[in-house]
Amino acid sequence: MANAVLLVLSMTIGLFFVLMGLIKLTPVFSEDVYREMRKVFIRSAKVFPLVAQTGWKPNPHIFRRVVGTTEVVCGILLAIVPGPIKEIANVILFGMMCGAVYIHFALKDGIEKMTPALVFGLLLGCRFIVHLQVKAREARQAREAEAQVETKKEQ
Fold first, then answer.
1. Residue 58 — left, alpha, or beta (φ > 0 → left; ψ -120 to 50 → alpha)?
2. How many domains in the chain?
């Protein structure tokens, strides 16, 4: 059951990030949304999280392209690719959602602008927790099976 939940969460979240990344990269879905996304990144670059420490501000258009490309790539990895690469994509996307919440907070955008990043950050966190639970259960079952084999050998 947990594996099914993990699969559905991975595919749903992954496809969402592919869609959102494509919206940041191209006007293929909506010219208005694409233009709005460009404006958001122009504002976001001003409060980039590491500006105070490094003094470096990213070019807003490159920042948008990097975020969009990362979302598309990690979304595909999360939706399709099995194994530890999927967990790396999960952690990268979770970090990006934390950054998005920070940026909206720094811009004083309000909770309505933060909500998508909060919700998908929580979903990514839940997905990772379910993954850890599945791994722990599989390890426990493997130990129990090994103990049963040892018990049968002793008899």
1. beta
2. 1
What is the per-residue pLDDT across 69-122, written as a single tens digit (0 to 9) for each? 999 999 999 999 988 999 999 999 999 999 999 999 999 988 998 999 999 999
42 conformational bin, left if phi > 0, alpha if psi -120 to 50, beta if neither? alpha
Which residues lie below 8 Å from residue 7, measured CB to CB, with a gap of 6+? none
Taking Cα atoms as reference points, which of 70, 76, 79 lies closest to residue 9?
79
Structural domain range at position 98: 2-154
Distance CA 143, CA 147 (A): 6
Q: What is d(CA 31, CA 47) in angstroms, rounded to the nearest whole number?
A: 25
